[in-house]
C-alpha cells in the first residue's frame, strides 16, 4: 500500500510576481526529483510542462510560488540543496525520509527554518550547520539521531536560534551538560527548548540557567535524576516548565514561586513572533504558540511539602504535581492562582482537608486530588459542583455528597477548633459567587477547548 508523504517546500527567491512558475524553482524542483533515488512507481509524477504550478503533487500560491510538494520520501542524503541558494525554509516534516541530514543543506546560507520532524533520519547533526548564521528554527523531533552532546556543541554556534524541537530525536544518551556549553555564552536567543522523550540521563543541566530568553523548557519523559534546581526560579522569561516523567527527587524548591513570567504581566509571554507563516498557514499563528502557562512536575520522586510560594504564580493556568511523594497539607495559598484551569495533585501523600478557599478558582475545570490521604468534607459550591467522584477517589477519609458519603457532624466541629478562622468573605460571599460560577465554568471550558486546539497544533510543529 503506497503512502503519500507530504512535504511543504518554501522557496523564497526574488519576489518578482510571475504569472507562471519561476524558472529557478522549476529547475530546482526537477533536479530535486531526479535526486530522490527511489521514486515510487505508484506516484505518476507528471512534471513535463513549463509551469511547475500545474505539476502533479505541486501546489502554488496566488503569486505562483511553490508552496506544497507531495512526493514520496526516500534517501534524503541524495537531495542536493546546493542549487537552492536562496532557500530560507524547508518543511519536510512527516515524510519517510531516511538517512543522514544532507551536508548540502549548509550551502543554503539564507536558511532560517528547517523542519525534518517525523522521519526516519539517522546519524548526527552535521557540523557545518554551525555556519548557518540566520538559522532560527530547527525541528528534528521524532527521528533516530545520535550524539545529543555533539548536536548542542554545533547548534550553540547558531546565534539566532530561537526554537529548538528535539523531542523523541535522541535515545538513551547523557544530558548535554559539559563545560563547553556552560562557558560559551550561547543560545542567548533561544526561547523554546523541547528535549522530551529522549531517555536522557543525568541532572538538569546548569547551562540552561543562563538562557535569559527561554520561555518554554520541555524535558519531559527522560531519565533525569537529582533535584529540581533552585535557579530555575530565577529564569526571567520561563513560563512553561515541563519535567513530567523523570526521576527527580527532593523538594519542589520554593524559589519556583519567583518565576517572573508567571508573576508579572509585564513579562513577554507572546510566542507568536516565533511562528513562521510557512508552518500551518491554515491556523492563525498567534494561536499556534499560545501555550498554556504551566508547571508540570508530575510522575517524579519529589517529596516534602508543597511550597506556599506556588501561590505567587498568579498567571499560571496549569499545575501538575501528580504522582510524586508530596506530603503535608494543600497550601491555602493555591487559592491565589486565580487563572488556574488545571490542578492535578493526585497520587501523593497529602493530608488534611481540601482548603475551602479553592472555591475561588473560577476557571478551574480539571481538578483532582485522587489517591492521597486527605480527610474531612469536600468543599461545596463553585467549580467543586462540577467535579465528579473520580477527582476525590482513593482518599478513604474524605466525605461529601459527591462521594455519596455523609460527613460525621462531630468530626467537623472538632477540627474547626484547630483551624484558624476562615476569612469572613467566605461565608457571606457564597450567594454572590453562585451566579458567576456558571459563567466561570463556561468561559473556563471555552479556554480549555481553545488551549487543546493550540496544543494539537503545536504537536504538528514538533
Ligand atoms: C500531464 O500533464 C500534461 C500537460 O500538462 C497533461 O496533458 C496530462 O493530462 C497530464 N497527465 C496526467 C496523468 O495528469
Ligand atoms: C503524517 O501524515 C499522515 C498522512 O498524511 C497523517 O495522517 C498523520 O496524522 C501525520 N502525522 C503527523 C504526526 O503529523
Ligand atoms: C514536550 O515533550 C513531550 C514528549 O515528552 C511532547 O509530547 C510535548 O508535545 C512536548 N511539548 C512541547 C511544547 O514541545
Ligand atoms: C508536557 O509533557 C506532557 C507529557 O509529555 C505532554 O503531554 C504535554 O503536552 C507537555 N506540555 C507542554 C506545554 O510542553
Ligand atoms: C503578539 O505579538 C504579535 C506580533 O509579534 C502581535 O501581533 C500580537 O497582537 C501579540 N499578541 C498578544 C496577545 O500580545
Ligand atoms: C513529609 O515527609 C518528610 C520526609 O520526606 C518528613 O520529614 C516530614 O515529617 C513529613 N511531613 C509531614 C507533615 O508528614
Ligand atoms: C462514582 O459515581 C458513579 C456515578 O456517578 C458511580 O457509578 C460510582 O460507583 C461512583 N464511584 C465511587 C467510588 O463512589
UniProtKB/TrEMBL annotation:
Pfam families recorded: LRR_1, LRR_8, LRRNT_2
Signal peptide start-end: 1-18
Keyword entries, A-Z: Cell membrane, Glycoprotein, Leucine-rich repeat, Membrane, Repeat, Signal, Transmembrane, Transmembrane helix
GO terms under cellular component: plasma membrane
Lineage top rank: taxon: Eukaryota
Transmembrane helix found in the keyword field: yes
Subcellular location: Cell membrane
Domain Leucine-rich repeat-containing N-terminal plant-type, residue spans: 26-61
GO molecular function: receptor serine/threonine kinase binding
Transmembrane segments: 433-454
Keyword Repeat in annotation: yes
Record-linked PANTHER family: LEUCINE-RICH REPEAT-CONTAINING N-TERMINAL PLANT-TYPE DOMAIN-CONTAINING PROTEIN, LRR RECEPTOR-LIKE SERINE/THREONINE-PROTEIN KINASE-RELATED
Family as reported in the entry's similarity comment: Belongs to the RLP family.
Protein known as: Leucine-rich repeat-containing N-terminal plant-type domain-containing protein
Native source species: Fraxinus pennsylvanica
Classification of source organism: Eukaryota, Viridiplantae, Streptophyta, Embryophyta, Tracheophyta
Amino acid at each position: 500500500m503506497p503512502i503519500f508523504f507530504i512535504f511543504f517546500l518554501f522557496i523564497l527567491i526574488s519576489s518578482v510576481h510571475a504569472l507562471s512558475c519561476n524558472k529557478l524553482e522549476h529547475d530546482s524542483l526537477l533536479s530535486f526529483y531526479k535526486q530522490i533515488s527511489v521514486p515510487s512507481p505508484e506516484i505518476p509524477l507528471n512534471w513535463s510542462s513549463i509551469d511547475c504550478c500545474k505539476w502533479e503533487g505541486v501546489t502554488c500560491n496566488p503569486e505562483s510560488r511553490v508552496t506544497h510538494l507531495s512526493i514520496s520520501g526516500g534517501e534524503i542524503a541524495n537531495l542536493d540543496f546546493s542549487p537552492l541558494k536562496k532557500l530560507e525554509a524547508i518543511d519536510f516534516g512527516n515524510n519517510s525520509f531516511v538517512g543522514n541530514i544532507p551536508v548540502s543543506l549548509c550551502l543554503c546560507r539564507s536558511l532560517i527554518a528547517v523542519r525534518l520532524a517525523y522521519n526516519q533520519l539517522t546519524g548526527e547533526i552535521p557540523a557545518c550547520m554551525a555556519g548557518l548564521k540566520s538559522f532560527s528554527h530547527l525541528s528534528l523531533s521524532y527521528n533516530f539521531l545520535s550524539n545529543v552532546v555533539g548536536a548542542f556543541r554545533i547548534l550553540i554556534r547558531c546565534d539566532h536560534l530561537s526554537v529548538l524541537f528535539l523531542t523523541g530525536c535522541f535515545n538513551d544518551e547523557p544530558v548535554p551538560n559539559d563545560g563547553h556549553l556552560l562557558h560559551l555564552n550561547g543560545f542567548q536567543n533561544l526561547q523554546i527548548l523541547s528535549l522530551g522523550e529522549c531517555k536522557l540521563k543525568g541532572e538538569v543541566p546548569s547551562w540552561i540557567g543562563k538562557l535569559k530568553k527561554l520561555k518554554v523548557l520541555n524535558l519531559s519523559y527522560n531519565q533525569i535524576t537529582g533535584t529540581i534546581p533552585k535557579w530555575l526560579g530565577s529564569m526571567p522569561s520561563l513560563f512553561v516548565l515541563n519535567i513530567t516523567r523523570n526521576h527527580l527527587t527532593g523538594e519542589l524548591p520554593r524559589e519556583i514561586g519567583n518565576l517572573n513570567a508567571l508573576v508579572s504581566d509585564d513579562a513577554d509571554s507572546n510566542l507568536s513572533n516565533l511562528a513562521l507563516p510557512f508552518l500551518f498557514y491554515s491556523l492563525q499563528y498567534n494561536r499556534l504558540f499560545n501555550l498554556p502557562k504551566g508547571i508540570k512536575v508530575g510522575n517524579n520522586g519529589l517529596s516534602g511539602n508543597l511550597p506556599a510560594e506556588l501561590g505567587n504564580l498568579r498567571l499560571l493556568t496549569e499545575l501538575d504535581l501528580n504522582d510524586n511523594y508530596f506530603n503535608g497539607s494543600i497550601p491555602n495559598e493555591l487559592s491565589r492562582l486565580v487563572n488556574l484551569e488545571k490542578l492535578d495533585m493526585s497520587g501523593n501523600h497529602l493530608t488534611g482537608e481540601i482548603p475551602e478557599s479553592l472555591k475561588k478558582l473560577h476557571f478551574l475545570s480539571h481538578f483532582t486530588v485522587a489517591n492521597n490521604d486527605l480527610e474531612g468534607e469536600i468543599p461545596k459550591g463553585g467549580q467543586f459542583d462540577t467535579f465528579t467522584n473520580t477527582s476525590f477517589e482513593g482518599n478513604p477519609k474524605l466525605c461529601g455528597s459527591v462521594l455519596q458519603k455523609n460527613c460525621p457532624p462531630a468530626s467537623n466541629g472538632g477540627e474547626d477548633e484547630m483551624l484558624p478562622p476562615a476569612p469572613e468573605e467566605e461565608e457571606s460571599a457564597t450567594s454572590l459567587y453562585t451566579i458567576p460560577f456558571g459563567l466561570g465554568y463556561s468561559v473556563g471550558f471555552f479556554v480549555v477547548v481553545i488551549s487543546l486546539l493550540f496544543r494539537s497544533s503545536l504537536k504538528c510543529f514538533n
